Amino acid sequence: MSSQNPAAVLPATSLPSRRLSVAPMMDWTDRHCRMFHRQITRHTWLYTEMVTTGALVYGDVERHLRYDGAEHPVALQLGGSDPADLAKSAKLGEQWGYDEINLNCGCPSERVQKGAFGACLMGEPQLVADCVKAMRDAVSVDVTVKHRIGIDYNEEYGFVRDFVGTIADAGCRTFIVHARNAVLKGLSPKENREIPPLRYEVAYQLKREFPALEILINGGIRTDEEIALHLQHVDGVMLGREAYHNPWVMADWDRRFYGDLDAPVKTRLQVLEAMLPYIAEQLRLYGQHGLKLNSITRHMLGIMTGLPGARAFRQVLSDSKKLATGDPALLLEAAARMPAAA
Predict the structure, then answer these.
(1) Kindly report the CA angle at 311 between 328 and 322, in degrees rounded to 5?
(2) pLDDT tens per residue across span 146-193
(3) Is 266 labelled as part of a ligand binding site?
(4) Which CATH number fits domain 6-256: 1.10.10.10, 3.60.15.10, 3.20.20.70, 3.40.50.150?
(5) CA distance 112 to 79
(6) Which has more confidence, 16 or 340?
(7) Is 95 annotated as a binding residue?
(8) Cis peptide before 264 (omega within 30 of 0)
(9) Catalytically annotated residues
(10) CB of 73 closer than 8 Å to CB of 101
(11) Is the pTM value of this prediction over 0.90?
(12) What element of type H or E holds 142?
């Protein structure tokens, strides 16, 4: 179902827990990426790229919020710091059928800081509380917060404890904890994902101190074994770049972590085949507006990661001349380069 207006979007009637989720990632987790991920796992929560309040209050709402109904459960992540604008944007998200509205308090980029939101908001917990309250007053879906464990070089546990406590007092029950500090000056966003040390024990301590809250952990997590370890301490685990670059890591999540023994067991080839009707429909609807085949297939380059022939698969799927034809069957041509059925 291609969704072009709020009335076309139907929220999920029964939502799974946030036991597993794929992180919001700018320029990556767009609606095409999420639709692809949904072919691999049906219970994992999917998050949009961060959408600024300005883009919704003053921009093209349909362009930023349209998605496919098959993506549920899907959460809208907002970036902003004005309670009124966030309330308006959250309401739009609810009208479009998103299952959760998430406030970004973790992005360290200077561009975001200039807008006075992202990780720098951790230094203003009362403002964040006001924003959360305004959003909660405007919508009936969950309002959640994604944040770091500290800013700059302040590693005192009390800083993040007080931040979470203040926001919880405003009614927020779910916190997604990226278990690194955000260094606001001197490090790039990429360096902020690699240089500040991971301190998972801080998220664990938050769960012990706030047992009634839902605490999800994020940052540097790559394997099912690591997920299982974290789930002994917190309520949920969010993967980011590993899920994007190696999406087949999600293949057994429905069965292993959600206990859904009826979840379909697909091959990689079946996942690619399942995407063909969607791609054809999207190109039909939006090709005249500039949508190219590569806008969708670029998210699928990692599906053969770890298999013999994966490089040949990526080469075919990255061939500019072949992509220019706009033929979704290029996915099957690329898969045919694999030495055995995927």
Answers:
(1) 30
(2) 999 999 999 999 999 999 999 999 999 999 999 999 999 888 888 988
(3) no
(4) 3.20.20.70
(5) 8
(6) 16
(7) no
(8) no
(9) 107
(10) no
(11) yes
(12) strand 142-151
